[in-house]
Protein 1
Amino acid sequence: MASAISRRLVLAGMGCIASSLSASNIKSLRGKTLSETIWSGYASAPRWTSFELATDDTIIVRAQAGELDVDAVLDSGSAVSVLSSALASRLAINGTDARVRATSGRTVVKIARNVQLALDGQPRSLPMVIISDLSTVSAAFGRPIDLVLGLDMLADRVLALDFAESRLALAPSGSFTGGNGWAVLQLSLGTARELLVSAGVDGRPAAQMILDLGSGNALMMSSAFVDDDHLLENRKVSTVAIGDMEGMHVAKAAMMDSVVLAGLPVAAVPSAVVENWLSTSAVGNIGLPLIAQFDVVIDITASRLWLRKPERSRHNLLLKDRTGLGVATRPSGLTVVHVASGSPAERDGWKAGEQIVAIDGEPVGPGYTRSRLWRWRYRPAGAAVSLTLYLSTTPLAYKTSYKVLPLSFGALAT
């Protein structure tokens, strides 16, 4: 997952659209707001709730666990919801040991029964939840993340995601019917209850992929699938750090030319290739950065996914990290946890463990993940950024050094 948070509270370009509507045009909307007209397909207007779009690749919502309000990640890649060990302790929830599937192996967690959770004020009693250490997730955001909301919170509901305005809507299953401008795909569940959808990569036939709102990687694919389809031939390849409940793993990284969902293409998609792929139902994983290229409606019970390319003024850019550095957020800085193979950072001698305390002279503090400072990682190819490093662990001998990092990550630059 990524390490910063940005909010998009207004619909980009809306003023231009509104100003182009004459009085007669507005009258013809029959009392509906422009937002309701854009999201036609419902029998009645949906009720929207804001979310935080963390570093443009993770949805964070306010949810309730028992009587507590907590930050939660919305994650369709998890069949069941996950409580942090700390939150379970606060709620006096105990569990029994079990082994569950992670990205590249199996990990030991605890299972608890009959847990009360709520999203958007809509309560649900879940027959089973996982209790696990979510410190890796929390470190990525520089604040506690105590809850991951899985598919069990979306059963019998329609979920609409409007990434341009950072908002979601929940409604009863069957209440959305699509219509003009919407493409529809069939959803299914894999053997491990993964949410599956068909997608094509670089002109290859469509294959089953996991639809994973909780993944900050735009696209992950099994190494067997990539090798069989020769997807890395004549392509620059580097490395990237990916994380799950087991911690951090290093995978190959490359830029795919295109990914197609329901006939809708997305160009230049950063991708990771995972060696120890566990799913027997899917060959890849479509994460939030790719999903966020669309307006999205998901009805799991009806086995339907609706997608629509938003107008250019409402479109989220698919960000590309050109630093070659994998970092974890700390209260007073960023810790380098991975240096990508073949990147300018590797050539300049960057090492895992180095501490970044300022970016272009601006200190990295507790508010880093809520500011726009995190965007330094996504500047255009050819740009440069000055990073201040902490060189001493002795408080009385605090020293810094400056490194200018050229942003032209070879494997992923466009």
Protein 2
Amino acid sequence: MNRIFPEGFLWGVATSAFQLEGSPHADWATWDERVGNNPGITNHYALYKEDLKLLKEIGVTAYRFSLEWSRIQPREDTWDEQAIAHYQDIVDILRDYGIEPMVTLHHFSHPRWFIERYPWHKAASREKFLRYAEMMASTIKGVRSWVTFNEPYVILLGGYLEGCMPPGLKDVRRSLLALKNIFTCHGKAYDIIHAYVPDAMVSVAHNMSVFAPWKKWNPLDRLLTKTAKYFYNHSLIDAFRTGTFIIKFPFSRAVEIDVPIKDKLDFFGVNYYTRIHLRFNPLKKMGVELRHLDLGGYGLTDMGWEIHPGGLEKVLRYASRLKKPLIITENGIATHDSQEKMKYMKRHIDVVEKSLRSGLDVQGYFYWTLIDNYEWLQGLDVRFGLYRVDFTTLKRIPTNAAAYYSYLIQSRSKL
């Protein structure tokens, strides 16, 4: 009898180093004053051994976490051997627990020296990042699964178009230079990792959303939706198939950017959270107004995002064009209500099961996230964690969702 969830399916949780532990050497340490007021965030850097025990409690088979580059290379000419040993210890503990590590090299934060001297629109950024990537691939032992960049389009939108993330620019031309440099780094890092880890599985984690017109009858809303869907979801996937990014916006010529990433994937990571409705509004930036509408009746999260489980199958189906194994590298809900967290989790895992039954090659699901953390630009009260953090005492408190995820892993693994 064929199993629905394949042998070796990765049941995991995902985290990001800076969001758990901060870093005095990171650009984000001074970017958001809320981090400055709470620099250690959850104190995970000191409490990591206790936090990793929570993974055993849940019964996950995989754990996605990131390396905090700014701790590892706090100055351009300095490698912190103690920080490298710290992350190696995490890998070793996971291996002892029988949990597969998945390491993310870049999850939004940078060393301050990098973002000040070599931001992504400068060609020198490539050399600096690839030096770091090679140091990690050659030094960290016991890791087969690697993510080079988490949500590279979010880096570009936040850092180069909205200006809400470092380096804080609003410059289309430089955003295109940054795109070329980031993805050139992925292509070269792919080769570097494979040189040191021949059987490595390497990808990016691509944030994908479902887009829909605010008013279906409005041709401008429909045009915006088509444009957003292609740019945000599909252009990256097509670039991995062809080696060329095609950036298309209404009423303007397409921009083509060649990058050395054709087939430089061993799996494809999908981060999925929500559906977004779009409306043409000439009073808004670029004529676009975004809204989360609760049309499905599942409600909105504490971030104001629509809960839309069915969209997960849509984005997985498009990503399947890559003909690579698919792994859901993030999926989760911001809510103080543990029951809502449980319902969100079940509905999305039901969609994973449906996708597997329909023949999609899905090989893993990572819930975001293990414990409450710092949510970029939102502070500490956005509760994604399976374990609640009391930010006064730093105590980890299990939510009912932690035990429920454990139940889902055990029950679905038998299917």
